[in-house]
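cron nightly-structures :: item 1 of 1
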Amino acid sequence: MPTLILVRHGRSTANTAGVLAGRTPGVALDERGAEQAAALPGRLAGLPLAAAVSSPLQRCRETLRPLLAARPELELYTEDRISECDYGDWSGRKLAELADEPLMGVVQQHPSAAAFPGGESMRGMQARAVDAVRDWNARIEAGHGDDAMYVMCSHGDIIKALVADALGMHLDLFQRIHADPCSVTAIRYTRLRPFLLRLGDTGDLASLAPREHPRPEGSDADAAVGGGAGAP
């Protein structure tokens, strides 16, 4: 099955201002975020990407723009199910102000029980994002083979929720996971289980490129079955 290259959007004006952006329109990359996005094509240069999938929000589309300019053959798809969590009435509010809300303790300690006023629950957020990835895995595999890789640009809580699912972690533990702006998290999906290859990586990614698997001289198709059962 495919390898998913998850990119958190670059640093945004909301990140800098300490605001919970949510789905508030007009939240763009700040100057540092634009620099991070400009560096992304070089970081992903060694990876044979089959497609690019983006949250519909502006900061994600801006993050992928330099990559798409560097790879004009790469088709971009928009996926609503990987959009930011709908924080409802909390959207656009200062994080320092929200820290005093009783619900914030639930969000941090028991997120599976948290539902934002006028928005969605964190369980619902995770479920839609996981469904989206499973659907895209099947689509990419059908079109490009089981060794394919594709990039998906989304948001911090979405990425953390997807990592928790890949690791078999309860959603209540997902706040222990962290991904910086424009960091890369890579998950290789297989028939039996996913493997987390990178988490919040801000460095070189060349080693993620698929390896060639030469067949030993005189081997037949069954010879490969003896490989390590736990290997990704």
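cron nightly-structures :: done
The chain has seven helices and six strands.
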